[in-house]
Amino acid sequence: TVTLTEAWNIVRRHLPEKRFKHTVGVRDTAIRLAKHYYVDEKKAELAAIVHDLCKYFDTDEMKQGLATVGENHWAACGSELLHAPYGAMYVEKELGIKDNEVLQAIRSHTTGRAAMSPLEQVIFVADYIEPNRSFVGVDQARKYATVSLDTACLFSLTNTIQYLLSKRSPIHPYTVEAYNYYTLKGE
Ligand code: DGI
Ligand code: FE
Ligand code: FE
Ligand code: FE
Questions:
Q1: Distance 86 CA to ligand 4 centre (A)
Q2: 37-81 pLDDT per residue, tens
């Protein structure tokens, strides 16, 4: 498996400046949340560093890659979703990352999913609230992140679904399942 330093060097080569800065923000935020919620900091750091590695990969290449492992249901999706499941596949194969908890956190970082592990939640929330993010509601999301991971996830999912509805964009079933799960859990 790659060391954290090796992972950084690969990520630096793959990502443009802005996305690299975002990744630094996600790394710092993920480590902070991991400490706060007693999640493995090293796993959080590794997942954060590589989470967007495939963000600018070719859409067709990612679809084909996912289809080779039988994941054909991504065919209608764009790179904004594909980079997460494909990224998990890619870092396993190309970087030798074998830790399934880390791979799962990368896989679910965009859509979320029902019943995420604490590590998945840390990455999902860190991606949403890292310091370079500046959308309406981000301060609220940062506050919720200090309260509980479930609350922060539900807020992020609700906000994302509202945003997608306002654009008349499709909503991935995993996002809906995650929203339903954390809504029912909070009742
Ligand atoms: O890769 P990042 O920009 O750091 O963040 P991300 O992986 O969370 O991707 C965010 C983008 O993905 C944003 O444009 C919203 C979009 N997105 C999140 N959930 C869904 C979604 N798009 C669709 N179509 N469906 C979803 O469920
Ligand atoms: Fe991403
Ligand atoms: Fe995200
Ligand atoms: Fe990201």
A1: 14
A2: 999 999 999 999 999 999 999 999 999 999 999 988 888 899 999
CA of 104 to the centre of ligand 4 (A): 15
Rounded CA gap, 17 and 108, in Å?
24
Task: Give the model confidence (pLDDT) of 123-148 as tens digits.
Answer: 999 999 999 999 999 999 999 999 99
CATH classification at residue 98: 1.10.3210.10
Q: Domain span at residue 83?
A: 4-133
Report how far ligand 3's centroid is from the alpha carbon of 98 (Å). 23
Residue 186 lies in a domain: no
ipTM of the complex: 0.90
DSSP secondary structure letter of residue 186: T
Answer for the pair 56, 79: CB distance below 8 angstroms, yes or no.
yes
Measured between alpha carbons, how far is 110 from 157 in angstroms, rounded to an integer? Answer: 10
CA distances from residue 135 to 112, 116, 119, 139, 141 in whole angstroms, order as listed? 19, 24, 24, 9, 10
**Residue of 22, 80, 113 to mutate, ligand 1, most atoms within 8 A of C-beta:** 80
Q: Per the structure, how many domains does the chain have?
A: 1
